[in-house]
Fold this protein.
Amino acid sequence: MGMRETIDQLRETLEQELNKTDSKQALENLRVRILGKKGELTALLRGMGTLPPEERPAAGQLINTAREKFTAMLEARQDAVRMMERAAALQAETIDVTEPVPPLPLGSAHPVNLVMNEMIDCFTGMGFEVVEGPEVELDHFNFELMNIPKNHPARDAQDTFYVDDNIVLRTHTSPIQARTMLSRKPPIRVVCPGRVFRADEADATHSPVFHQMEGLVVDKDVTMADLRGTLNAFAERIYGKGITTRFRPSFFPFTEPSTEVDLTCAACHGKGCRVCKGTGWIEVLGGGMVNPHVLEMCGIDPTVYSGFAFGIGLERIAMQRYGIPDLRLLYEGDVRFLGQFR
Ligand code: DAH
């Protein structure tokens, strides 16, 4: 068979094979088979040595033309294959956006967060700003500036987690009072929600981690009546109309005078029931007038300014509000429990 026939045959083969190739890989295999180093056309080129010298130029010409032609054929098919692959990919990736899907399970806000958010709403509505402080706190802020010096008995009452001699996990949100007074000038009106820590054994009413919200107002002529009015508004907003406060004398190192604050029992509206043990009142928070010594230590002149402060335990509010009988339920992360607060 002459060179021309061989090449014609090769072209025919290529044509047939090309029509069957439908992937880049198959196309590449075909290219190697014909045009590659050990390919069939390349073999022809190698075989030229056996031809008589006068036939070689014409043969060489034929082979080169064929190579160009074959390359063009391969490239043309390559474009077609690329289009086919693209069309197939698009087909495979088609999404039916109208197809119904099973609903995703919805999470729910934690009851402590629900209460916290509601209280933030309530206080920001009265012109308070929300500020936060560090959970790992200096002894200086947690105790010293709150008028609880070393060896003060109040330090024992608050079973503190010490990181070292000077650093504690804050035992209350009160240190944010000091941080706020040191960093801004009156008028100050802030609430400070956050996590606090005490070395308590977990039981139905205790947890080593819980939440408080601190409130602080410092301005000229702030009085205990302002504290009362603020907390009455808070009581009605959180527990409903007719709920009010009762102040009982108390003691905190950072307030003078200090008060324990009870709210009308929301379960019986003050008539007396099991929840309030017949008293009609529920103890909810502590507060008082900021101790002048605290103002002074925090760079505020107590002869010009006065302030009130309060601290509220959020778990206690959440438990009363939602009738949760055991504090531990709030921390066990049981979805059957948490899912009820949707
Ligand atoms: N820090 C107190 C506690 O953890 C709560 C408290 C009481 C905060 C009176 C206050 C306050 O700001 O005036 O028990």
Remarks:
- The chain has a mean pLDDT of 92.
- Residues 56-93 form the longest helix (38 residues).
